[in-house]
């Protein structure tokens, strides 16, 4: 790799798949990847949202593709990866942005709700990573996987109960490290982003309580929520040649929260 390639943040000629790409952080990452030159597959449980984002990207002059997938269902994951392969014939980048949260007191959390969160956040990340890696390993060209973890993968929280989410994101943090070590020799880099609270529909339930939002802002040294585009910038870096020697890293995009 020459110096020019090593400092490139471009993704020209790369095929990327983004789960949860129909809204929020996933949508922002999909747009950022397209602007960096990638062909982007939008994968989302809500097919209409996925199609809408794909159309947005096409209007910007880039190629895109949409498919529905429940990331916790292996048959659907295999079908979605197969659809990407049939459409464009390869896969260089995967972003695991699909996620869910059920914010209830731990003593009152039904096992069914715990399982729902784990199925998406943990099992879904594993299944998507495994099937994407199979494609990358077969091609022999390496690749990049970017997981969306959370500052709650490092923190016990405290403002409100969220045990299944916090546990699941802690699992994503160490899954990222374990897969990075396992696939390093194959030049498949696996990293994660740990955002703080991001201004997306994912936190609509929290925004119903203005006092809580103000308490959250007060806990963040920069004094504000993150915007989805700020998370997308980190994803572009981790997926790009500029991060060619970066694997097993968890990049906090948190306004200084974890530095305290």
Features:
single chain, about 260 residues, alpha/beta, Rossmann fold, seven-stranded parallel β-sheet, 9 helices, about 45% helix, about 15% strand
Structural class: alpha/beta
Total number of strands: 7
Give the C-alpha Rg: 17 Å
- CATH fold group: Rossmann fold
What is the CATH architecture descriptor? 3-Layer(aba) Sandwich
CATH superfamily: NAD(P)-binding Rossmann-like Domain
Could you say which overall geometry the principal axes of the C-alpha atoms support?
Answer: globular
How much strand? 5-15%
Contiguous helical run count: 9
The biggest beta sheet is recorded as: 7 strands, parallel
**Highest-level CATH class:** Alpha Beta
Write the layout of secondary structure elements.
Blueprint: H1 3-6, E1 15-19, H2 24-35, E2 39-44, H3 47-59, E3 64-68, H4 74-88, E4 93-96, H5 111-139, E5 143-148, H6 163-183, E6 188-195, H7 204-207, H8 210-219, H9 228-239, E7 250-253
Parallel strand pairs: 1-2, 1-4, 2-3, 4-5, 5-6, 6-7
Helix pairs in contact: 2-9, 4-5, 5-6
What does this structure look like?
The protein is globular, with a radius of gyration of 17 Å. It has a single domain (3-254), classed as Rossmann fold (3-Layer(aba) Sandwich). It has 9 helices and 7 strands, in the order αβαβαβαβαβαβαααβ. A 7-stranded parallel sheet has the order 3-2-1-4-5-6-7, with helices on both faces. α4 packs parallel to α5. The protein is an alpha/beta fold and 260 residues long. The longest helix is centred in the middle third of the chain and has 29 residues, at 111-139. It has helices spanning 3-6, 24-35, 47-59, 74-88, 111-139, 163-183, 204-207, 210-219, 228-239, and strands at residues 15-19, 39-44, 64-68, 93-96, 143-148, 188-195, 250-253. 46% of the residues lie in helices and 15% in strands.
